[in-house]
Amino acid sequence: MSTSQQPDPKDRPARLTVGVVGAGRVGPALAASLQLAGHRPVAVSGVSDTSRRRAERMLPDVPLVPPAEVLARAELVLLTVPDDALPGLVEGLAETGAVRPGQLLVHTSGRYGAKVLDPALRAGALPLALHPAMTFTGTPVDVQRLAGCSFGVTAPEELRLAAEALVIEMGGEPEWIAEEMRPLYHAALALGANHLVTLVAQSMELLREAGVAAPDRMLGPLLGAALDNALRSGDAALTGPVARGDAGTVAAHVTELRRHAPQTVAGYLAMARATADRALAHGLLKPELAEDLLGVLANGTDGTNGAEGDAR
C-alpha cells in the first residue's frame, strides 16, 4: 500500500491517546510521529536514566509513569521493549489486569507477529505488530526518517486496515508480513542491516591501518554506489576479485588480513564463499576460474599466484 493511497475515512483510527512502554530509541519517535498526525501522547514509562531523558526530550510534558499506569491512561499503547522481554511483559500486563478491552496494543518487534500478544487478546485488547524497518538514533531526526520507511505489519485480518492506516499516519509504507514469516523477515533485515554495520566498521579499521586518514570519506561514494547498484540490479551488481575469479588477489587479501587483522579472516572467507557461490550461479564467475578461487577459500591460505586486482 502506498502512502498516496490514503485509507478510507472509516478505516482511519480515531484520534487516540497514546502511551509508550519502553522509552528506548523507537517508542518515543513513533509516539512523536503519531502526535504530528493528531494523536495525543499521554504517558510513557522508562527504566534507565538515559531512557527517561530521551522521553523528556522527544515527548516533553508527557508524564513518566509505571507501565500499568501507561495502559490505564492510553487507548493506543506502544510496547517498544527488547524482543526477549516482550513475551514476559505482555503476560505480566495481562495477568495483573492492566489490559483493557478494546485497547489497541502495538508492539514493534521484528521477530514476533501478533500471536505474542495473545495473552492481551484474551483480555480483550486489539493486537497489532508494526515493525519499522529502520535504525533509530533516539533523537528527533528519527521522526523525519519515518517518512517513506517500510513497516512490517502483522495483525488479525479484521484489524489489517487499521494497522496499515496507523503506519500511513506515521509517514510509513505498510508491508504485510504473514505471522509464520516474521522470523524469516527479521533475519533478512538483520542480515542486510546489522551485518552491514559490522562490515563497514571493519573496512574502516583496515583502511586506517593502511594509512588512510579519512576512511569514511573514501568509503562513502564506493559503498553508496554499491548499495544503489545492489538494490537496483541484485546479483548482477557483483564486482571485485571474487566475482572475477582472481584467486591470487584473494589469496593476497587473506595473507594481509592474517598479518594485520586476524579477527577479520573468518568473516572475509565466509562472505567470499557466499559471493563466489552467487557469482557462479548467475554466470558471473567463469567455471574455469572458480577452481583455484574456491581452493584458496577452502584453505584460507595462499593459493595460486596472480596479479593483484582492484575493488572495481
TrEMBL record:
Q: Tell me the ranges covered by the DUF2520 domain, including all copies.
A: 149-275
What would be one Pfam family of this protein?
DUF2520
Residues in Putative oxidoreductase/dehydrogenase Rossmann-like domain copies: 11-132
Its transmembrane ranges are none
- PANTHER family xrefs: CONSERVED HYPOTHETICAL ALANINE AND LEUCINE RICH PROTEIN
Per its record, how is this protein called by name? DUF2520 domain-containing protein
Q: Which organism is it from?
A: Streptomyces shaanxiensis
